[in-house]
Amino acid sequence: MEQHHNDQDRSPEQDIRNSKAAREARSIVRFMIEHTAYGGFGALVFGGLVLYFDIGGIYSLAMASRDAPIFVFLLFFGLFVTFGGISLGIGIMTLGGFSDDDRYRDERSRNQRHDD
């Protein structure tokens, strides 16, 4: 006999979208988007200040060109990629900071099984 599983027969714990792996994947994606957004905000602030204070004559040069919107887009796109990548990298590299904590090492050795 063939068994049919309806969505109504499944409990919420059995739903693959609500599994532990799916929840962890969503939290990882949320972490990455959040840190990239921090970098994007930094890029907007930095790019705005560069254009406002006309550092290196960038704003004057861009506005003298007929392709000013493309120039400004490329400036902010490059800044977003750079700042977003740096922010994401810093976020990822600081994830392992708990392993340097002595309390973590003590807890890990306490919970270690000795099969000898």
What does this structure look like?
This protein is mainly α and 116 residues long. It has one domain. It contains 4 helices and no strands. α1 packs across α3. The longest helix is centred in the N-terminal third of the chain and has 33 residues. The model has no long low-confidence stretch (mean pLDDT 84).
Short description:
With 116 residues, this protein is mostly helical. Helix content is 65%, strand content 0%.
The total strand number stands at 0
- What is the general shape? elongated
> Biggest sheet, in brief?
none
Protein structure class: mainly alpha
| Quaternary assembly | single chain
What percentage of the residues does DSSP assign to strands (E)?
under 5%
What is the secondary structure topology, with strand pairs?
Elements: H1 20-52, H2 58-64, H3 68-93, H4 102-110
Helix pairs in contact: 1-3
Features:
single chain; mainly alpha
